[in-house]
Amino acid sequence: MLTVMKFGGSSVADLAHIRNVAQRCIEKQQAGSQVVVVLSAMGKTTDGLIATAKQITEKPSRREMDMLLATGEQVSVSLMAITMIQMGVSAVSLNAWQIPMHTTSDYQNARFKRIDTERIRKELDDNKIVIVTGFQGINRYDDMTTLGRGGSDYTAAIIAAALDADALEIWTDVDGFMTADPRVISTAYTINELSYVEATELCNFGAKVVYPPTIYPVCHKNIPIIIKNTFNPEGAGTVIKQEVSSPQSKAIKGISSINDTSLITVQGLGMVGVIGVNYRIFKALAKNGISVFLVSQASSENSTSIGVRNADADLACEVLNEEFAKEIEMGEISPIQAEKDLATVAIVGENMKHTPGIAGKLFGTLGRNGISVIACAQGASETNISFV
Known about the structure:
This protein has 388 residues and is of the alpha/beta class. The protein is built from eleven helices and 18 strands. It has an eight-stranded mixed beta sheet, with helices on both faces. The longest helix has 25 residues, at 62-86. The radius of gyration is 23 Å and the shape is globular. It starts with a strand and ends with a strand.
């Protein structure tokens, strides 16, 4: 058996926490599993490094920032290896160069290309616990790169898939996926099981338990993800796998939301029957690095609404007004503006497609409580109904 265990920054925030994590990993090995541990930087280390760099210059070199930020995980894995060895266990720390983990050259937002597993497998065969830096890789110039926020989760998933692990455990500071945000809904509770699809939908709509791209590599290999709370290890946590045990149990698994949402609507009678309008919308946004998380279109084709983050709203309006300047001048399309400070809410559950009346109940409940729905979207799979 082989288990990949990932621990976030709060789980390794100080030496006492590191000893606690070391003991948990040792117990996993003693139970008969080979163990690969992926670590984030300690506590708020990464934030501190960013703040320090910005006292030197407001816009530091992206390459040099990656060299700086990668040191946080190096400290974590080294201290963890020292601790385990002191506890009488064979352990070794490995960084991105030593494995190596190959990425693109997009500094501060690199993407994995491939990973060589020979070194990890050799150390595991020597009965060592292998401790790996999360969040980072190397590019074709052997420069250090980082993967952006959530990159340690992604690192763990890539390693688990490459090694054909039996399980990926993500240890964090929450009990798992909740039915809703417990800060908003006091009666929210932990969801025991989710399918890969349900977990992805909840991640994309604000559930910050797992970095969304983490799910695909292990889903592809059918490796279960187990979410556990470092500070409540006895809790059941959440298991994410291909098929849940009782798919008929609940139609809706969870409710998730994103605040700070802006809705931008491209509308005008000049859009009706014109081929390529949506292509132009999304091409213009993509060229400027603007992510769209919701799309709603009228069947008459005279309007398309897109949901973006508040921070992207002004730039999105600017590039779309530029893209459609000719049509706006001719009155075929209205000037494009953003409606800001909205919330996007999603209800998620694979079994919704087997349950008639879910949408009716949803909008009826909202209406009775005086909540206006500005836009909504539902995929044909009926796994997610989203509304602004």
